[in-house]
Design goal:
This protein is an alpha+beta fold. The longest helix has 18 residues. The radius of gyration is 29 Å and the shape is elongated.
């Protein structure tokens, strides 16, 4: 795509332009002048060979007028694309390809010009033609990636996923870019009508920065990780405002794929009571791996202003991930985070209530795309928490599931989610068992290439044999997100 980092894509498709553009234009001017003065149409493809001695001439491998003319067309089209004269570039390229249709580089450039004008059907044809003409290598990988990008932008998400899987199966230089794009699609960060991340095969990688601003109302504030059991607030409703910032970088490190993410948010509960409550949260992920396997480190910190503002929760550990693609629209994900967690704010005289310890979660997720945009993800998590205090040792399982269904006439993405969980605090002195369920509804609207709006509602109930740990809450929120880079 031209917008949102498209210049990198344009740059990567210009391998045919090897020398200085000014020199090419000057050379092209004289070549086209000579070409225009040639009356014999046969001369357009170079001098005719009349005998074998001519074919063995030292000038046999010299560039023909057709070669020079092709380079001139590439250069002029390249200038138009950089100047965002997409219509002009399309006209120049279309006229040339109408009579010389075997140049994959030019078909790729034509596709870029057409996609920039929202001509997705024509652009997809051009990229497909380019991929069919180009040999395996960077140019072909670029054309296939652009083809997938065009399909996704043109509301054909499933077909775009199929092309990305094809690019992965071919290996080579575009494999990492395709894997990153598929991850973004499966994580619902990219949907139909949006562009894929910029194509690049160099080690510099890609940086993406996004921000969000959320507003909402919570009917039961600060019921976080059993905070109510330790003197937290229960039953207090409040409006809230929550700004967030996230930076992601993906590229290569030691010739392996490298993904990283840093996220920070701050939630201010605008309670009418005598005290206000704020929660600051930060998370860092670093993952490196080859193919479908990745491993790395994770770290989370939460701060809470329980007068004064102080550290509430800290954890860190390692994470292992494995992806297994069944076909172009079905994927299994396996994840094993192992963390050491500390509740620094939880200073208690009773050793049985200390929650510092090791937490292990085994996750299995199934993802599938139905039709062009409908996506279903279902996950089973098994968790074991081995704290210093017996009251918080637990074994649990939960089943989160999400369905995303498009409402095409209004270009909306409807979400439905539910989560059912069970936790057994197997050494709790009061024999604690919790059953938790949560349902949610949401609507997502892409206002522009970089701006999106979402409205969400959730209802959550925790039923526990420990009375102070039982609660229910509703949250309604409005979020505005913007991709800064």
């Amino acid at each position: 795509m031209i917008q949102g980092g498209g210049k990198q894509k344009l740059t990567s498709c210009r391998r045919g332009v090897q020398s200085c553009k000014v020199v090419l234009v000057c050379a092209g001017f004289f070549a086209m002048t000579a070409f225009a003065q040639t009356n014999d149409p046969a001369q357009a493809n170079g001098p005719a060979r009349t005998n074998s001695s001519e074919s063995e001439s030292p000038e046999r491998n010299a560039p023909t007028r057709a070669d020079t003319n092709r380079e001139v067309i590439r250069t002029y089209a390249d200038f138009d694309l950089e100047a965002k004269n997409y219509s002009s570039a399309e006209i120049v390229l279309s006229k040339y390809l109408a009579r010389e249709d075997q140049d994959g580089i030019l078909w790729n450039m034509l596709g870029l010009a057409q996609v920039a004008q929202q001509k997705f059907a024509q652009g997809c044809f051009a990229f497909q033609k380019a991929a069919s003409l180009l040999p395996k290598g960077e140019d072909r990988s670029n054309a296939l990636y652009n083809y997938a990008d065009c399909l996704v932008q043109g509301q054909h998400l499933q077909e775009g996923v199929q092309v990305l899987n094809r690019l992965i199966s071919e290996g080579g230089q575009g494999k990492t870019c395709a894997e990153v794009a598929l991850d973004k699609i499966n994580q619902h960060q990219i949907g139909a009508g949006q562009s894929l991340p910029p194509y690049s095969v160099n080690s510099r990688g890609h940086l993406r920065v996004s921000g969000a601003l959320g507003f909402g109302f919570d009917t039961n504030v600060l019921l976080l990780d059993d905070l109510s059991v330790n003197g937290g607030v229960s039953g207090q409703s409040s409006a809230y405002v929550s700004p967030a910032l996230q930076a992601s970088y993906w590229g290569t490190l030691f010739r392996e794929r490298f993904d990283s993410r840093i996220m920070a948010s701050f939630t201010d509960y605008l309670s009418a009571a005598e005290s206000s409550y704020n929660l600051a949260y930060e998370r860092i992920d670093f993952l490196i791996g080859s193919g479908s396997f990745r491993a790395g480190i994770i770290q989370e910190i939460s701060y809470l202003n329980r007068d004064p503002f102080q550290l509430y929760f800290l954890n860190g550990g390692v994470n292992f991930q494995k992806k297994m693609r069944v076909d172009s629209v079905t994927e299994w994900d396996f994840e094993l985070p192992i963390k050491y967690q500390s509740y620094a704010i939880d200073q208690t005289a009773d050793p049985a209530n200390v929650r510092t310890g090791v937490d292990v979660v085994a996750k299995v997720q199934w993802l599938k795309i139905f039709g062009s945009q409908t996506r279903v993800s279902s996950q089973v998590n098994g968790e074991g928490t081995f704290t210093s205090g017996d009251n918080y040792k637990l074994l649990g399982v939960d089943w989160p599931t999400q369905v995303l269904v498009p409402l095409l006439p209004f270009e909306l993405l409807n979400t439905f989610a539910f989560d059912l969980g069970y936790s057994d605090y197997w050494k709790n002195t009061q024999g604690r068992h919790d059953v938790n369920y949560k349902v949610g509804l949401g609507v997502i609207k892409n206002l522009s290439t970089h701006l999106r709006l979402s409205v969400d509602f959730s209802y959550q109930v925790n039923s526990s044999t420990l009375e102070t740990a039982s609660y229910h809450k509703q949250v309604v929120g409005l979020n505005l997100g913007y991709d800064l880079l």
